[in-house]
Specification:
Blueprint: E1 7-11, E2 14-21, E3 28-38, E4 44-47, H1 52-81
Antiparallel strand pairs: 1-2, 2-3, 3-4
Length: 86
């Protein structure tokens, strides 16, 4: 069974994929940065290797991912504190 990412952020050919994970202490998040490219057969592929021109864009993606996760963690904390309405 495949679980969908919690969120994706894309800038050009780079993408930050945010995963929501569960533990006894509550949810936690992880991030993967991927770069899309076409191979010699004109097929789309993904890699986690970044070139010089990708580094600043990857940093911007990670900054945006950090902001999204911070906001989501606040939502998660609030949800744990409020009782569920019946």
């Amino acid at each position: 069974m495949t679980t969908a990412p919690a969120h994706k952020i894309r800038i050009a050919n780079l993408q930050a994929v945010i995963w929501r994970n569960s533990s006894e202490k509550g949810p936690w998040y992880s991030v993967q940065v991927k770069r899309s490219y076409k191979n010699g057969d004109d097929q789309w592929r993904e890699t986690d290797a970044m070139g010089y021109d990708d580094v600043l864009t990857a940093a911007k993606l990670l900054d945006q991912a950090h902001t999204w996760i911070t906001e989501q963690m606040a939502v998660d904390r609030k949800a744990r504190k409020e009782p569920v309405a019946a």
